[in-house]
Amino acid sequence: MYFVILYTFNASCGYSEAEQQKFFADHVRYIKSLHASKKIVMSGAYNDINGGLVILEVESRKEAEIIMAEDPALKSSLYHGELHEWQVVFKQS
User: Fold this and answer.
1) Which domains does the chain have, with CATH numbers?
2) CA separation for the pair 14, 77 (Å, rounded)
3) pTM of the predicted model, to two decimals?
4) Other Cβ atoms closer than 10 A to 5
């Protein structure tokens, strides 16, 4: 199953720049570990706003929810996250 996590920066998070950098660095390490375990198909940041998205390939919605719950950027409320099941219509091989 595929899921998309949409990340939006929480401008009212109240963290200092240093705290924001720490939570974001923790988030990047977490995303890299998920990529290494082949749970992430692709991920990246938006060019026009502060946010990004992750495309997951996991066994269930519950697994995707657990991944979100453990993400340092979401746990800290530095970013807001939305989870959507994604139906692939076209895919290059």
Assistant:
1) 2-86 (3.30.70.1060)
2) 10
3) 0.90
4) 22
